[in-house]
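FORM 12-B: Structure-to-Sequence Request
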């Protein structure tokens, strides 16, 4: 397969051919019915008996089998053509996006797939090539190679689809020519079993981790009919693919959610993890139904919910947006932390995202806000005051979660319509560490502001390492929140975890806490278990410290104990939810682009 062949192919015409074979197959099915009832049936009921009658019955029955088999054989051609056509169209569109991107970057792509570019003006004679020119040349060569590799891969995909489709059609043709296909009562079954082990369409859809910009361009370039077909046949892949428009993901994932619940309900005996997922998914479905109803009754007061992700991977995956992030003026995506379960997407974590939406609308009624809760990684599950309750959290979950979160946020940028939205990344507890890991990845996070609340550290020693201006890094740390008073990992390993674990899970303090008169007693008591650096937390520099260089905003001290770790989304009037707490009000100002109006607090 070469570029010109793939570019110029009119693959949509294969769908018309598939429809024609469906009609012919249906016509043969009518012939089969006519034969069985009008010919064979009448002979059988005529009263004719004897050896001749038996032989006639056998012959008529064999003919009926052939007519029925012919119908099945003809109908077997239709799905082969459709799947091939879809694979060709998807590859064709991938190629178009690549060629467009390459041209925009100043490259020329030859008919053979080679990629070249016009070199920059060389240095004056006698001066030689400068280091900057060498670096630019190397970068251009690497990008050209990358384009060439991706174009080659698309052509291989198309060639493979061509070969597989050809083999499938040839097998059906051979069966028809030899008559083998007319001897099976379930015509085409053997062929389909042999040749449909591979889903050509699935292999042509961009994979998880693909560039959201490229995914978005690929999707937008597909004909509407093809988009609808993919939604029907590959909703799982489409719903969880970053770069697909949010309304499309919502449509696909609601179908995925129903399908997942049904599958788990019919599975029989479930493991404890599966039972937890099933309960969580049911809760998400109930929450969506409730929010749909509220929005339908009061569209100006209640946001439309969008299900942006749903999966059974790990502990379960889900992302719900209150408001459409593709059209919102301000978008915030919240990453929860320690102890987060999939049920939180329909419960407490959804409440936090919804409450932030409410507070943001109050902070600036002119803004169209989308507030997202993102459970796209396996948050650590602390189980009691064990000596290693914090050590098991480790860094791996945040590193993997940070990679997924980065792609998710990039997808929000890619799918946004009109003027770019003001975007905020929000991490709580271990989720702030996850956000920090995402921000420190190559390319960083395409956000305008970062909010860290109840943070045990981000893995960074300074706000400037998070990829944006430190003036736009915001920190909320309650004085009585034990997680913001943790010692460093090295200190914790040296002195034991008994007191720390007890404080973190809200259990009585262990020996260390009792020996010091209270591990997290605030500034007047023991300084967070630190023996070396009071501003070094479990995962790096304390974001609330002066040395970190971010902006610390006002947060109520809160009650002593673990309850303070979850108070950042509170309203002053409780269930009335009319007046946000200092913390929630400040986060709402940041989300709506009014960070300068936050009430500040002195860094530690």
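FORM 12-B RESPONSE
SEQUENCE OUT:
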């Amino acid at each position: 397969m070469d570029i010109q062949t793939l570019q110029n192919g009119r693959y949509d015409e294969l769908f018309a051919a598939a429809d024609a074979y469906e009609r012919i197959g249906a016509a043969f099915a009518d012939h089969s019915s006519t034969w069985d009832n009008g010919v064979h049936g009448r002979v059988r009921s005529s009263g004719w008996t004897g050896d001749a009658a038996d032989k006639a019955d056998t012959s008529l029955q064999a003919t009926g089998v052939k007519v029925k088999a012919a119908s099945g054989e003809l109908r077997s051609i239709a799905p082969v053509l459709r799947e091939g056509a879809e694979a060709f169209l998807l590859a064709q569109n991938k190629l178009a996006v690549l060629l467009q991107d390459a041209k925009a970057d100043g490259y020329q792509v030859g008919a053979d797939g080679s990629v070249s570019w016009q070199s920059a003006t060389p240095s004056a004679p006698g001066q030689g090539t400068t280091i900057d020119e060498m670096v630019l040349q190397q970068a251009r060569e690497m990008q050209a190679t990358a384009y060439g590799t991706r174009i080659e891969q698309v052509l291989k995909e198309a060639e493979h689809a061509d070969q597989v489709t050809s083999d499938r059609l040839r097998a059906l043709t051979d069966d028809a020519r030899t008559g083998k296909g007319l001897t099976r009562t379930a015509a085409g079954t053997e062929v389909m079993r042999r040749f449909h082990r591979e889903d050509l369409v699935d292999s042509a859809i961009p994979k998880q981790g693909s560039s959201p910009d490229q995914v978005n361009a690929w999707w937008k370039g597909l004909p509407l009919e093809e988009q609808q077909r993919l939604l029907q046949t590959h909703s799982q892949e489409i719903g969880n693919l970053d770069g697909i428009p949010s309304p499309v993901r919502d449509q696909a994932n609601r179908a995925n959610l129903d399908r997942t619940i049904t599958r788990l309900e019919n599975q029989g005996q479930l493991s404890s993890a599966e039972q937890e997922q099933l309960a969580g998914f049911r809760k998400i479905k109930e929450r969506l139904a409730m929010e749909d109803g509220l929005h339908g009754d009061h569209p100006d007061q209640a946001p439309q919910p969008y299900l942006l992700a749903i999966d059974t991977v790990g502990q379960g995956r889900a992302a719900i947006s209150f408001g459409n992030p593709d059209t919102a003026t301000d978008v915030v995506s919240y990453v929860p932390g320690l102890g987060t379960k999939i049920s939180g997407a329909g419960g407490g974590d959804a409440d936090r995202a919804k409450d932030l939406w409410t507070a943001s609308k109050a902070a600036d009624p002119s803004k169209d806000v989308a507030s997202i809760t993102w459970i796209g990684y396996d948050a650590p599950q602390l189980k009691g005051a064990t000596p290693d309750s914090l050590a098991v959290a480790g860094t791996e979950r945040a590193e993997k979660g940070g990679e997924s979160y980065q792609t998710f946020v990039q997808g929000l940028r890619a799918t946004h319509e009109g003027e770019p939205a003001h975007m905020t990344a929000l991490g709580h507890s271990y989720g702030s560490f996850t956000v920090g890991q995402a921000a420190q990845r190559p390319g960083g996070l395409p956000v305008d502001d970062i909010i860290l609340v109840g943070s045990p550290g981000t893995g960074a020693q300074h706000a400037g390492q998070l990829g944006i201006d430190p003036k736009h890094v915001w920190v909320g740390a309650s004085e009585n929140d034990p997680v913001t008073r943790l010692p460093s990992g090295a200190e914790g390993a040296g002195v034991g975890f008994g007191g720390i674990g007890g404080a973190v899970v809200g259990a009585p303090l262990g020996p260390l806490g009792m020996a010091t008169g209270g591990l997290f007693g605030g500034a007047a008591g023991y300084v967070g278990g630190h023996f070396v650096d009071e501003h070094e937390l479990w995962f790096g520099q304390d974001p609330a410290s002066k040395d970190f260089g971010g902006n610390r905003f006002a947060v109520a001290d809160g009650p002593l104990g673990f309850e303070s770790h979850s108070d950042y989304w509170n309203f002053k009037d409780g269930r009335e939810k009319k007046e946000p707490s200092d913390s929630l009000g400040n986060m709402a100002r940041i989300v709506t682009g009014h960070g300068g109006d936050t009430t500040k607090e002195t860094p530690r």
